[in-house]
Amino acid sequence: MTSPLRFSAFEVFLAAAAVTGLGAVGALAVQVDGTALLSDAFATPASTMLTIDLLVLGVSVVVWTVVEARRLGLRRPWVWAALAIPLPGAFVVPLFLLVRERRLRGGHELSAVCEQPFRSPQTPT
Predict the structure, then answer these.
(1) pLDDT for residue 6
(2) Closest by CA position to 55, among listed 93, 96, 32, 89
(3) Residues 66-98: tens digit of each pLDDT
(4) DSSP code of 80?
(5) DSSP state of 44
(6) What is the DSSP secondary-structure string of 7-59?
């Protein structure tokens, strides 16, 4: 019998990605001049393209995260959208994917905010 505390290789990767994202982006964020950030983001056509691409991607991922959290029966799915504001996406997205993977696999200790059992779309009601 396997313990629910065991992590798959994919889950270890997601945890490492979340920690790396928080550390790397967080370390760089403290060096950024907040007043120049917006002007720098749109300073050149290349930076404008990347900024708009990341904004559209970020909004899409946040919407998907809230919808997916609701589908999986996680309580307070809007928390993931709120976390995306002050925290780096390089941390929040892998963290959500880790919680999602644990939820799908049945290891609920990381998704303790679950309020109802998960039913896949294939499971008859």
Answers:
(1) 85
(2) 89
(3) 999 999 999 899 999 999 999 999 999 999 999
(4) H
(5) S
(6) --HHHHHHHHHHHHHHHHHHHHHTTS-HHHHHHHHTSSHHHHHHHHHHHHHHH
Residue 20 and residue 79: Cα distance in Å, rounded? 21
Distance CA 84, CA 9 (A): 25
CA 72 to chain CA centroid, Å, is 15
- % of the chain exceeding 70 in pLDDT: 81
**22: amino acid identity, one letter:** L
Amino acid at 15: A
Specify the pLDDT at position 35. 83
Cβ pair 82, 50 in contact under 8 A: no
- Residue 74 sits at φ, ψ, to 5 deg, of -75, 135
Q: How confident is the model at residue 124 (pLDDT cuts 50, 70, 90)?
A: low
